[in-house]
Amino acid sequence: MKGKYAVFLALSAVFVFSLPGHATRLVGSEHFSLKADSLVDDDLVLAVKEASLSGHITGDLLFAGSGLMLSGPVDGNVLAGGQHLSLKGPVGGSVRAFCSDLTIENRVGRNLAVFCGTARLPEGGVVEKDAHVFSGNLMVGGNINGSLVFYGGEVVISGKVGKGAKIKADKITLASTARIEGDFTYTSKKEAKIEPGAVVTGQTLHTLPKKKEGKGVSGWIWWVVWRTSELVTGFLLIALFRKQMNVLKETVAVSFLKTLGVGLLSFVVIPVMALLFAVIIIGLPITLVLTAFYLVALVLACNFTGLPLGDGVLRLFRKDKPFSLYASMTVGVLLIQLLEEVPYFGMLVLLVTAWIGLGAIILGSYRLSIQLPAPSGS
Predict the structure, then answer these.
(1) Across the chain, what does the average pLDDT equal?
(2) pLDDT digit string (tens) for 161-202?
(3) Are residues 189 and 45 in the same domain?
(4) Region 228-240: what's the mean pLDDT?
(5) What interhelical angle do 345-369 and 325-340 show, nearest 10?
(6) Going by C-beta distance under 8 Å and a sequence separation of 6 or more, which residues neighbour residue 190?
């Protein structure tokens, strides 16, 4: 039964990744560099620690790692998850980023969706359509030709917003050079600081944030039940699939970036392929299989991520002896649950957990299916 389970997941993974096109370039390593005279005539998927891209990418760019320096053009979309992201080259499509800090110094041809600690659009940076930003801090010195939606801590606008701004923040500043065409609607405990010279062509509407109500007794009961069930599910996975869980743990531990990259790619690709197959009758069984795999993997992502996380945390205190899988699962799941409760940051934790969980089950199950031991290096 365990063998069939592993083979099924591995074949599903291989099938999914074979669909987008054989020319898609997938790279997993420590560092990756694309020189200015280089051309990637298709999509580029990177699961690396650091990437420096000065060449031309005609398709989409998917990045998972620590740092990304993009100096060359990308004709398609950019989907990136990392710590430091710097986009100095033009992007023809949309940019979706999950990171610690993001700087966009060139043109984004479509929409911008960001979840990060600090986001910057300095003078010279342009978003042709709408920008949705969830971050601790946002600085807008360039142009957003569509609308701006911001939820976070502090925002400073010294550039132009073309179709109105809707902001919910602790501190809001419109510098003297700011221009908002359309309505400026904001929710904050404080009045926005609007410097002389700032222009709002529409209405300015300020509302106070609603007082947050507590979870209540039923809310706390549901929260405890849900969080406890995640931990119990982890224990059941260990009891029923000990070998598989060990392989998943080792896969994440020694191939973290590759796991994150595969997870990020599958997070995007699987729903798209499921929808494509749904339009043809003979593809409905495949749609059901992909959908079931996707949903189960997401539900169990906390366990698949929590096990290696807990093991890594425990090894900080004792490296000479292995820890019980149950202890590692308990520490990792509880830590993820606590981090998910942090405002704004919790959503990023939820996404990264999903990516790691998806990558772990796909890579780990593939290695089980071909009867190879856990990898000894990335």
Answers:
(1) 84
(2) 999 999 999 999 999 999 999 999 999 999 999 999 999 999
(3) yes
(4) 91
(5) 150
(6) 170, 171, 172
The per-residue pLDDT for 368 is: 78
Query: CB neighbours (10 Å) of residue 324?
Result: 11
Rounded CA separation 319/322 (Å): 7
Distances (CA, A) of 66 to 33, 74, 85, 371: 14, 20, 8, 31
The pLDDT value given to residue 329: 92
Nearest to 156 by CA among 134, 139, 142, 136: 139
> Are residues 203 and 57 part of one domain?
yes
Q: Are 184 and 200 in contact (CB under 8 A)?
A: yes
Q: Domain check: are 75 and 202 in the same one?
A: yes
Three-state SS at 163:
coil
Number of H helices, E strands in the chain: 8, 21
Contact 155, 175 (CB under 8 A): no
> What are 36's two structure tokens?
């200015």
Same structural domain, 203 and 311:
no
Residue in the block written with tokens 């020189």: 35
**300-328 per-position pLDDT tens digit:** 999 999 999 999 888 888 877 788 899 99
Within this chain, do residues 238 and 365 fall inside the same structural domain, yes or no? yes
The answer to whether 132 touches 115, Cβ cutoff 8 Å, is: no
Mean pLDDT of 329-333: 92
State yes or no: pLDDT of 8 exceeds 60: no
β-bridge partners, 69: 52, 86
One DSSP character per residue, 87-99 reads E-S-BSS-EEEEE
What's the pTM value of the predicted model, to 2 decimals?
0.70
CA atoms of 119 and 164, how far apart (whole Å): 19
Long-range contacts of 164-168 (CB under 8 A, 24+ apart): 164/202, 168/209
**Tokens 């998917």 belong to which residue?**
62
Question: Could you tell me the two tokens for 59?
Answer: 């398709």
Tell me, what's the pLDDT at 2? Answer: 42
Number of domains in the chain: 2
Residue range(s) defining the domain that contains residue 334 = 216-369
Tokens in use for 15? 């099938």
